[in-house]
Description:
Blueprint: H1 5-16, H2 25-41, H3 57-60, E1 84-89, E2 92-93, E3 106-110, H4 111-115, H5 128-132, H6 140-148, E4 153-157, E5 165-170, E6 177-186, E7 191-198, E8 203-212, E9 217-224, E10 231-240, E11 245-253, E12 257-266, E13 272-282, E14 287-296, E15 302-312, E16 316-325, E17 332-342, E18 348-357, E19 362-371, H7 375-383, H8 388-404, H9 410-427
Parallel strand pairs: 1-5, 4-6, 5-7, 6-8, 7-9, 8-10, 9-11, 10-12, 11-13, 12-14, 13-15, 14-16, 15-17, 16-18, 17-19
Antiparallel strand pairs: 1-2, 3-4
Helix pairs in contact: 2-6, 7-8, 8-9
Amino acid sequence: MALPKLRQDATSARLSAMVLPAGANWAMEARRAAVGRVATSGLPQRRDEYWRYTDPASLVSVEAGAAAVLQDNETPVFDGFDRLRIVFVDGVFDAGASDDLRLTGIEIERLPEAMAKDIHWAKELYGVLEARGQKPVERPLAALNTAFATDGVVIRVTAKVSKPVNLVYLHRDNSSDVALHHLLRLEAGAEMTLLENGPAAARFSTVLETEIGDGARLHHIRVQGRDHERRAVTHCFARLGTQSHFKSFTLTLNGKLTRNECIVDLTGNDAVAHVAGAALGDGPDFLHDDTVFITHDALACESRQVFKKVLRNGATGVFQGKILVKPGAQKTDGYQISQSLLLDDDSQFLAKPELEIYADDVVCSHGSTSGAIDDTALFYLRSRGVPVQAATDLLVLAFLAEALDEIADMRIADDLRGRLEGWLARRRR
C-alpha cells in the first residue's frame, strides 16, 4: 500500500540526506533492512494514533535545529559514585574522558568496532529486538536509528559486575544531531547496573537493545539533562528470559521535547519487569512523552509501570502505556499507574492507558489521575510554620516518591531526591 504523499515526501527527504555507516556484510544487511522498515512505514506524523499527543515534526525533519548548550555549576549526576565512565561528546566516543573499559565480568566494545567484524555476537542482536518491536505498533524512528547510528557500545555481561557502567552524554555543539545505538547482553545469572546521563545533543536519538538471560538482573537508571532546548527520542527494547529481572527508571528535567519509548517482552516464566519515570516540566515549551508497551508471553510474570509528572507554567505531559497478555500467559500480574500534579491551570496531562488480555487467570490493573496540590495537606504544613513554596516542594517530592522507590540502589535514589530538592528550590527564585 502506497504511503500518503506528505508522509512519503518527509520520509524520502530524510533518507536521502543520510548515509549508511560502513560495516561487515551482516551489519550492512541489518542497516539496509532497517531502511526498508522506515520506507515501508514512513516517518511518523501527528495524525498517527501513537503520536496524536506529540508532534514529531522536529524529530523527523532533515535539519535538527539549534539548541543552546546549558551552562551551570552543578556537580554532574552520578559523580559521587564509583563507576566505569564511557563518555560521548556530541555522539562521538571520547577515549580520553572515558575510563579503562576493562572490568571483571563484562566485555565492552564500541559499536563501530563490533560491526566491522565478520563474526560477532552482535549479529544476533543488532536490529533484532527493534524489528520485533515494530509489531503491533510501528516505531520508524527506532528503525531509522538502527539504519544510521554512528556510535554506541556493545556490552556482554557474564557475571555480577562490581560497579555500575555509566554512559555520559556531553553536549558541546548547539547544532549537533546524534544517533547512538547500544547493545547489551546479560548471560544467565549475570547482573549489572547501567547508568545514563547528560543532554547529549541538540537532537538526540538513542536505541538500547537488551537481552536478559535466565536469572539475570539489569538495573537501568537514566537522568536526562536540564538543557531547555534539547529534543530527544529514546527507545529501550528488552527481552527477558526465565526468572530474569529488569528495572528501569528515568528522571527528566525540562527539555523542549522528550519522547521515551520502552518495549518489553516477557518471554521466560517468572520474569519481572518494572519501568518507572519521573518528569518535571516548567514552561509552555516543555513536552514530555512516556510510551510503554509490555508484552506478557510466559507464565507467572510480573510487570509494573509507575509514571509521575509535575507540570507548571503551561507544560504538557503525555503517558501512553499498554499491557498485552498473550494466550497462555497465565498467572500474569500487571500493574500500571500514571499520575500528574498540575501546579497551575495552564498545564495539561494527556494519558492513554491500555489493557489487552487473552488469558483468563491474570491480575491486571491500570489507573491514571491528574490533580492539583492538596489544599488540606498544604494548609497542614503552613499551619506548622512551613512557607508556602517550601511546603509545595515537600508535597511535590512526596508525590514523586512512588516512582523513585522503584530504584533498587537506595544511595542513588537518595542522591536523586537531593538533586530534586535543589532543583525545586532554585525554581522558587
